[in-house]
């Protein structure tokens, strides 16, 4: 993601002031110049960048700051606050209400990713247990207004809670598009109109957002295509043009590639500081607390084969592992997109093997297979795999057990995240402590690595027992293996 470049540049500028012996006007000017330059390069609107510079200068008055006050900290905090303001209009988005009918209308230009995003959003709510449906008024036929109206009325009668209306962006004339949008809006009377914007459009974003804002009562924004080469800065201007909050960003073409948006978390992730509360929410979404046995086991550092099976089931529902990894402080710079397919395929394969295990085996810690190797042959035959693959699964399980001991247990990261914990209510101190704890758990020497060669090493299947030892990379590979990613399986590949 190109935003990571922006984050890196801002980070470097912020870090630079730590090296300056004296913080004076000159240092502040140089810092602001660097930051503004980076923002402009990322296509953030010139006026917004100018505002940011002015606001920082107003808030941080070097002359008036008393001696002894930590000027560096004040400058850094002010810059982060201003970056957050860029993407946060200070307006609360519409929150759907349970048990009610929430009509959500999508608008946006052709190709912005509307239809894809409607589907992702419908799936997002469905996964969370809402009765959800889609009205496809995104049609070539001449009667989209009627289709939208009839569709919404039908689903209202049937008691759907989330009714998403997709509209068309295929018009030769902008005026026609806006007229149709108005007519559909009148007949479906949406609770929330979501403006979908392509994250790659750069400086054109502001004018486009303004035009939509003047016609439709835009309630929220979703920015798509924030994977790949989106500079993203242009789309940020949409917030200022519409005074509407970004609620999600699209980060790929798959149904899971929709991420909730929160200004502070976004900036924190962009600056490589991780997104602990996002990670905690994701972990909570795994509904560990509904599985009392697992929670109890984790706290004691126990992890049976069945636990692994259930976690794979949950993870498959949650979407790509790379999304979770990017929330870990220091991991955001790793572009793990390509490994998702591989991870998903691998998980499926491993689950097939576990499907052929009996109750005793599933509830065991895996040692039973070493004691009675005939079981391995039986499972391999039953699952249509090979002895080697079953053995690989057992190795995988063992490394997960190690991970659970590290992350779980009394001092683990999962401690305090049991049933009823709400990460959004966690105190900043506790959040900070968790973050520091996670950072300590990361493999040594990750910072400053050549990411390309790291990716080559991880995905190239060069790892696994027997591979030449690489001090930093082997640790990284281990971690990736433990998370179920990377080509590090012994004899990688197997039958697929
Ligand atoms: N990489 C990436 N591609 C996306 C994302 N969202 C949508 N796309 C792709 O963008 C293209 C256009 O998406 P659509 O959903 O058809 O766009 P639309 O706005 O509905 O377009 P019309 O139906 O023509 O109005 C498709 O190829 C999608 O797969 C995203 O977040 N990332």
From TrEMBL:
Enumerate the PROSITE patterns for this protein.
SRP54
GO CC terms for this protein? Answer: cytosol; signal recognition particle, endoplasmic reticulum targeting
Q: Which reaction does it catalyse?
A: GTP + H2O = GDP + phosphate + H(+)
Report keywords, A-Z: GTP-binding, Hydrolase, Nucleotide-binding, Ribonucleoprotein, RNA-binding, Signal recognition particle
State the EC number(s).
Answer: 3.6.5.4
Q: Name one GO biological process term.
A: SRP-dependent cotranslational protein targeting to membrane, translocation
Note the InterPro entries from the entry.
Answer: AAA+_ATPase, P-loop_NTPase, Signal_recog_part_SRP54_M_sf, Signal_recog_particl_SRP54_hlx, Signal_recog_particle_SRP54_M, SRP54, SRP54_GTPase_dom, SRP54_N_sf
Which positions fall inside the SRP54-type proteins GTP-binding domain? Answer: 245-258
Q: In the UniProt record, does the keyword Transmembrane occur?
A: no
SUPFAM superfamilies referenced in this protein's UniProt entry, alphabetically: P-loop containing nucleoside triphosphate hydrolases, Signal peptide-binding domain
Principal EC category: hydrolase
Q: Name one GO molecular function term.
A: 7S RNA binding
Q: Which PANTHER family match?
A: SIGNAL RECOGNITION PARTICLE 54K PROTEIN SRP54, SIGNAL RECOGNITION PARTICLE SUBUNIT SRP54
| Family statement | Belongs to the GTP-binding SRP family. SRP54 subfamily.
Report what the protein is called.
Answer: signal-recognition-particle GTPase
């Amino acid at each position: 993601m190109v935003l990571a470049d922006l984050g890196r540049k801002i980070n470097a500028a912020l870090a630079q002031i730590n090296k300056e012996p004296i913080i004076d006007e000159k240092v502040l000017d140089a810092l602001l110049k660097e930051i503004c330059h980076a923002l402009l390069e990322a296509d953030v609107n010139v006026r917004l960048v100018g505002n940011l510079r002015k606001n920082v200068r107003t808030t941080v008055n070097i002359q008036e700051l008393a001696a002894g006050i930590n000027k560096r900290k004040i400058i850094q905090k002010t810059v982060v606050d201003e970056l957050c303001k860029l993407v946060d209009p200070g307006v609360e988005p519409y929150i759907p209400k349970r048990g009610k009918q929430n009509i959500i209308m999508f608008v946006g230009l052709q190709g912005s990713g509307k239809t894809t995003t409607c589907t992702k959003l419908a799936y997002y709510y469905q996964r969370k247990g809402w009765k959800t449906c889609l009205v496809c008024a995104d049609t070539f036929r001449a009667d989209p207004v009627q289709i939208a109206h009839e569709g919404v009325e039908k689903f209202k009668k049937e008691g759907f809670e989330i009714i998403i209306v997709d509209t068309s962006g295929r018009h030769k004339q902008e005026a026609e598009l806006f007229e149709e949008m108005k007519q559909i809006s009148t007949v479906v009377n949406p609770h929330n109109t979501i403006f979908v914007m392509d994250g790659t459009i750069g400086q054109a974003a502001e004018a486009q957002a303004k035009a939509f804002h003047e016609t439709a009562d835009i309630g929220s924004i979703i920015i798509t295509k924030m994977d790949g080469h989106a500079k993203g800065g242009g789309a940020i201007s949409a917030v200022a043009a519409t005074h509407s909050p970004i609620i999600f960003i699209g980060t790929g073409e798959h149904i899971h590639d929709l991420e909730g948006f929160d200004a502070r978390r976004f900036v924190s992730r962009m600056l490589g500081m991780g997104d602990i509360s996002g990670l905690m929410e994701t972990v909570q979404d795994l509904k560990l607390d509904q599985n009392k046995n697992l929670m109890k086991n984790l706290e004691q550092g126990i992890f049976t084969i069945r636990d692994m099976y259930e976690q794979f089931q949950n993870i498959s529902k949650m979407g790509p592992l790379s999304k979770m990894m990017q929330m870990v402080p220091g991991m955001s710079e790793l572009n793990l997109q390509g490994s998702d397919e591989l991870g998903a395929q691998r998980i499926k394969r491993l689950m097939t093997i576990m499907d052929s295990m009996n109750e005793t085996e599933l509830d065991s810690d895996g040692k039973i297979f070493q004691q009675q190797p005939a079981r391995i042959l039986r499972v391999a035959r039953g699952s249509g795999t090979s002895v080697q693959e079953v053995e690989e699964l057992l190795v995988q399980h063992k490394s997960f057990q190690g991970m659970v001991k590290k992350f779980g247990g009394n001092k683990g990261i999962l401690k305090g995240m049991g049933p009823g914990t709400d990460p959004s209510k966690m105190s900043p101190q506790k959040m900070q402590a968790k973050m520091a704890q996670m950072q300590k758990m990361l493999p040594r020497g990750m910072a400053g690595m050549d990411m390309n060669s790291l990716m080559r090493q991880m995905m190239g299947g060069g790892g696994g027992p027997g591979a030449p030892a690489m001090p930093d990379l082997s640790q990284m590979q281990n971690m990736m293996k433990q998370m179920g990613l990377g080509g590090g399986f012994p004899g990688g590949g197997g039958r697929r």
